[in-house]
Write a structure and sequence with these properties.
Elements lengths: L1 E6 L9 H8 L4 E7 L7 H5 L2 H5 L3 E5 L1 H9 L5 H17 L3 E6 L9 H14 L2 E4 H9 L10 E3 L2 E2 L1 H20 L2 E17 L8 E5 L4 E8 L3 E5 L5 E19 L3 E7 L10 E5 L10 E7 L22 E23 L23
Parallel strand pairs: 1-2, 1-3, 3-4, 4-5
Antiparallel strand pairs: 6-7, 8-16, 9-10, 10-16, 11-15, 12-13, 12-14, 12-15, 12-16
Helix pairs in contact: 1-8, 5-6, 7-8
Amino acid sequence: MRIAILGQSNSILKEGFFNKFLDRHQPIDVVSTGRVGASPSLLGPYFADRAFFRNAEFCIVDMCAIDFSLLSAGAIGLYDVVKWIEWIGHSAKRNGCEPIFVCIPVSTVEYSKHLISNCISVFERNEWFYLDVRDCIAQLLEGGTGRPETLYKDPSHPGVELSELIADSLKELIDEIRAMPMVAVDRMFPITRFEVINLQDRLAAPVANYKTSLIEFRGVRLERGKSYELKLGGISALSGMMLNSAACKGVLEIEGDRKFNKNLRLRAYHPTPVEVRLVPICKPLRDADGTIALTVVDGAATESDTTFHSTKALEDDLGFVEASEIMVERGYDLFTYGSRRPANGQMLRWAPRSARKLAQVSWER
């Protein structure tokens, strides 16, 4: 089978479900990958141009754990999550690729209920397939007294047993989709027009280049005391920045038709010179006469756009930020495309073979 993958750390880790899927269910041809840890569903528009999906039969989408973490921290809104996952789903279907959304809750499962319920409403409204990992958890806990936390290695990452069941369940769902009667359908959707703009090509700033097994980072180092003017033309929003979190030690003032500060005093999760992270920007901001300005300012500036896992420690305020790209929005395109849906509209969700259902598992303490 030909697979594309969009995901965060659960799709990267050796013991994560995606690598278990590759280990247990060959032959699999991974034709496109877009994976960055600690980054939300905005990864879809960042990585997935039209060529990303074209040679893939299925696209596995693994975003729920980080979307929840950023949402609970106030670093994104529910509107943003819905916009990004709808963009991924319609972009995949438009290019003949079947998206499968893998909804992994955090270890305290009830915390993720609101986000996952909203995501599922989007999947079912658009008739996209999904795997609700709470069903896998219910299957593993059936007949016992264990708690979901026992199936996790840490709050955001399933342990080996759960990862293996997610992998096997994903293969079952793919087999079911392949055998499922489908009907042709036309879809119409107003899709956000995202654009990724490399800063190294636009700004006179020191170069910062890195390459990892997952991504090549062609960036610049923005330094305190300098203002960098970026000519963009008309934009409807500034939606995110790709950063090296291991070298982000400052507060960034962003000015367009308004001005706000973004706390980018970050710490890498592991000792390393480069740890790439896509950081969303949720404050509404348009250009001012076709430009925006970026300035690393004094660390005493008040933060006005929340950044997940940022710090306010003095030792992290060194006055520089390394960034490779920004993501902007340039309005909407309305398009109609030919697609397909299951002849039986109830067959969107994988269900465990177990007779005991999710409703019989108590998530509350």
